[in-house]
Amino acid sequence: MQVMNVFLCRHPLKSSLSFGLFSNPLIWLGIAAELLMMLFIIYTPAGNWLFGTAPVGADVWLLALALAGLMGGLEEIRKAWLRSAKT
Questions:
Q1: Could you say which DSSP state residue 19 is in?
Q2: Cα–Cα dist 4/70, whole Å
Q3: pTM to 2 decimals?
Q4: What mean pLDDT value characterizes the chain?
Q5: Among 70, 87, 82, 84, CA closest to 11
Q6: Using one digit for the tens of pLDDT, what is the confidence trace for 78-87?
Q7: 43-74 pLDDT, tens per residue?
Q8: Which of 4, 23, 27, 57 could join 68 in a cystine, given CB atoms 3.0 to 4.6 angstroms apart?
Q9: d(Cα 84, Cα 42) in Å, to the nearest integer?
Q10: Strand (E) or helix (H) holding 1
Q11: Sign of the CA dihedral with 43 first, then 49, 50, and 52 last
């Protein structure tokens, strides 16, 4: 959800799709760091011990992906509505 959110928050009214996917390479560096830390915390014994976590299955990842897509779609609709209301 936070990976989707970082793309959605780039501008309050412009569509996230109006920006180039690789226009800000630092975003991708941050996403890679976040995902690596998350995978360490969830899928390594040291991460499980330090943070009290347990590995999750593919169903959890698929649900998170679906909800992130839903969040992205709803935010794009909200931004389009705001843009149309301004004109």
A1: S
A2: 10
A3: 0.83
A4: 94
A5: 82
A6: 999 999 998 6
A7: 999 999 999 999 999 999 999 999 999 999 99
A8: 4
A9: 43
A10: none
A11: positive
